Amino acid sequence: MDIRINPRALQGRLPAISSKSAAHRLFFAAAAADGQTEICLQGKPGEDILATISCLKALGVNITEEKQSRDETAYTVTPASPMSGKAEKPLLDCGESGSTARMLLPLATYLAPNGFMMTGKGRLPERPMTPLIDELINKGCEFGSKSIPFECKNTPDGGTFRIAGNISSQFISGLLFLLPLLKEGGSIEIDPPLQSAGYVDMTVDTLSLFGVDIKQTENRIFVKGGQGYRTPGKINAEGDWSSAAFWLCAGAINGSVTVTGLNAASTQKDKYVFDILKEMGADCTQNGEEFTVTSKTLKGITIDASEIPDIIPVLSVVCAVAEGESRIVNAGRLRLKESDRIDSTCAMLKSLGAEVYADEDSIGIIGKKALSGGVADSFNDHRIAMSAAVASAACTGPVTIRGADCTAKSYTSFFDDFRMLGGELIK
């Protein structure tokens, strides 16, 4: 689906939708808990969360949903027992969700020790899985392939798992969901540097909510075996800083936007967007869980992408209309996302009239007062499509986004909320 947008300032208030990253983790923990868990989500879940729910159901987890209000849904999760006595091999279709595939894989070896199939689509089969698979093989798992689609069987032994910290923190999170269930437990040795460490912190926080005791040193995580998970009963997934970043950046370039329901103390590193926009010169104010960003003269800065890869595309849009030159560094892992996000971000910006260049690990952007508008390809990447929509607020002409429906991967109601803030879609 292509969408055409007339340039308009974006203004108003929106509640944050639930964090996709938090929701994945809550569902995984609830799937192996000692009783039912009720998980409350704000906003309609995106395709990635639906993929996680579908895979857990295939593993024998019972998940029902009930609307609590127009914007809130409660999911009751009844955990599964290991399918050791069942001959069938469940099919786990992860769609395009790397979070589902990587974090579920270790847990699936426990829930379906006789074997399962894991599949996916889009760019997921190309995204790295080998480091995690190699560690599981070393502990007794058998795989038909080291890339999706594959068949896997056997529950791994406990012990020491070794993972490089600069490819995907999801490998570490996936192992953390498994280790409390193994009789022997184990540890994870991380080859530094650990990038996106905040996502590992989110996993540790989730496990703590379910009564799991974890001990950490600088580059090692210890998990005692046989702990299992103790359900907290009812829990709300926290507001999502990743999606809120699009609206806060829109306020920074042309308008004034308030996002409510955000936790300043969250372990989500994408909360840094607020401080980055403030450093660039935007008018940024906070009142409890409400964060407001209003446009003002912006200046270029250097942004370290290592902890915030998901919001680099939309921050690049802000840089494109900031005075002077901006640099985005330590961005190499963006090449392993739903698209090569260094190339796709640069292509999107250039198509809208920005001056941008890149190398293997960084992006350079020379700011100008306004962008021209034009036709931007989404590259089937939700964050590129949403960033192009935000960029329309800083354009002098219309913006057409090719394949804009990919926003449903993480933010089903994105264009509805875009309209609520004054965005104008041309029919």
Attribute tags:
427 residues; alpha/beta; UDP-n-acetylglucosamine1-carboxyvinyl-transferase, Chain; four-stranded mixed β-sheet
What does the model show?
It is a single chain. The mean pLDDT is 95. This protein folds into two domains: 202 residues, Enolpyruvate transferase domain (UDP-n-acetylglucosamine1-carboxyvinyl-transferase, Chain, Alpha-beta prism); 217 residues, Enolpyruvate transferase domain (UDP-n-acetylglucosamine1-carboxyvinyl-transferase, Chain). Helix 5 runs parallel beside helix 6. The longest helix is centred in the N-terminal third of the chain and has 14 residues. Helix 9 links the parallel strand 18 and strand 19. It contains twelve helices and 24 strands.
What can be said about this structure in brief?
By secondary structure, the protein is an alpha/beta fold.
